[in-house]
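Morning, I've got a small favour to ask if you have a moment. I owe you a coffee for this, so here goes:
>
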Amino acid sequence: MESAIASVAASAIGVGWQPEEVAAALVELADNHMLALLANRDLARDLAVLKR
């Protein structure tokens, strides 16, 4: 994953993003991804309870 992230960062920097902006965007994306995973897990749990 590190090489994929480095590639995304290099591409963003290549089109004019500042390294700090790239880092902040990557952190935000990771945070949103985690929140989505947790929300989907909770939804699946709640739906399973309702189906009982």
